Amino acid sequence: MPVWGSLRLALVKSGMRHIWARFFIVIAIAVICLAIVFGTMARKRTFSMVATTLGGEIMFNGQQNDWHFSEVIQCSLRANPDFRATDKPQASPCDGAMFNVQYLSDKVVPWKNSDQIEFSSNSSNGLQIRVKSDTVPGMPPGSLFIIPQTAWADHGAFAFQGTVQLGGKMATGSRGYLLSGHWEALQTGMATSLVRDITDVVKSGTLVRGSTVDFIKPGGDVITYGHLTPPDASTAGIEVAVLTEKAPIALRVSYYGLHEPAIFKPDWIDTISSSTMLVALVVLLSLIAGIVELSLAISDRRKRTTTEP
To answer: pTM of this prediction?
Structure first.
């Protein structure tokens, strides 16, 4: 009886010890997983986007927005129409009665804060820029800068800093619509930033023809850094590439026929599924749990062997 009593007591203690060991393993894994999830989460992110569009809008911000035109037709809207005005010998794309037309080379336009423009690909595949704000000297709202197709095809990039909208509102007869595009949301979690100074692509998508796209954040406009470039010879439209500031940003996409725009931003599922660090740590934790479980089983078997009569 004393032997069996001692064996029962040893088994009870061993069972309790195993239960508590497993309990602490589960708690430790849960705490580590919560810490990892918290560490990989980030409210701030940046978006990158490359698109081909027939039109868009920019509101400039900052002092890095000087545009150099190698060749441009400047059409300043007249305060009052002059129907006696005649066009120059070249075929002017602007009505001389409504615009004061100038043919310029090596023209530099220093866009200032809050200057707003609308850019589009005109009927001859050149670039047309319409002034929308009343802050551009000598260029009232409605005035135009037009780069002919021959000059635009070999033109350099137009870099900008400011807020941007790609694609106009889609309706019957619309011309400045978006053709195609691709976007990515990138962010770095707290835990990831401790071991590597890079960002992960946590969400991505494509833009369909006719979309209207911009970026939003709580409490203000989203500053983007981008550039306009001419398309390939076989492609229509304007090539646009942008990168946003780092902030709690979301991508807003409007479609024809929908009352509310679609909002895209990464959630915790996107963050976890795209984190290679998190996947590696989960595998490591599973391995550690398996080793501990195996060690407990071996220890329990040894104790049973030593206590048997």
So the answer is: 0.75
